[in-house]
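Sample entry (389 residues):
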Amino acid sequence: MIVVGCGGLGSAALYRLARELGSGVVGLEQFALGHDRGASQDHSRIIRLAQHQPQYAALAGPAYAAWAEVEAESQQTLVTRTGGLVIEDREVRRGIDSGTRNIEGYTAVFDEFDVDYELLDADELQSRWPQFRLDGGEQALYQSESGIVDAARANAVHVALARAHGAQVHEHTPVRRVCPDGDGVLVETDDRTYRADRVVVAADAWTNQVLRDCGVRLPLTVTQEQVTYYATPHLAEFSPARFPVFMWHGEHNFYGFPVYGEVATKLGQHMGGHETTADDRTFEPDPVRQKRYARFVEQHLPRFGGPELYTKTCLYTVPPDQDFVLDTVPDHPQITVAVGAGHAYKFAALLGELLADLALDRAPAHPIEAFSLTRRALTDPTFARSFHV
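Predicted structure, serialized as tokens:
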């Protein structure tokens, strides 16, 4: 069994497969482990039960359980609960087609899946968290189980546990070609050709390059995203015990973190980046977005800001419908494919389990039909992008 790519999803799949198969599992990573060229880097990702689509809500609770299982085996803390806010600027959003990414969409799914939450108006929100400066037209949802999953640490833990179960992991080993070979798969690197019974491809922005000889090419858009860390002088106000993770749906979709990983707060924008490729991307921040972040902080979280510690970039690899890809290749079930669509990390420990199910020809333990390789968004060229803001 070979896993191509040892980022967030690949390392999780590597661990789950190694737990079952031991020394028969090999992980191949084209760069150094822990590299910053893909999507699964940095200290923090938001983890939350707050979902506005049922296909993700069905996985959210099991994802917490999967992370807890990894923490129990490793005795490492990977999830920090801070509570979480979804804030919608109702005045700004009026007339914008946001699909279900709005207060009504979240509450409908909360109610369907019996998740506790609080609905707050602007005054109630600002009374509880005076760090915010609001205009009065905002409405918010608070969910107490939201928090932070430490992405870089979790990747390292998944790899370490996989090795403990007997897996081999080879970094600086780019995969040049994956090709079906009878009931098995050939995996070519610069140094050798492997033959495996099954392969999991978790190559994200490099997915189509790796799969080019498998009869499938996915309509993926790669964007260069960025986050900014601010060296706030108000550390106590923005500690994880006093300030929650948040998502802000207004003119732009922002997300933010308390002080964690760095001695700084962190702000990002979901789907704000320009299109690029894995090879053409740069590591240079977009100054337009840096200024946009600064304006948001000045207007709504003035003490959250401070000197810019740094801004770093990453890649999103996104299908037209923004949904995951978790499936085996049609006509070649020995090849399993995963694409995280820019929002998978919160689910990574669970997705590793589901990828192991697919690779071992088992029915997945949780519903993933919405993430099929044969869905219309991936097979119909006329399918319009749905990058809802």
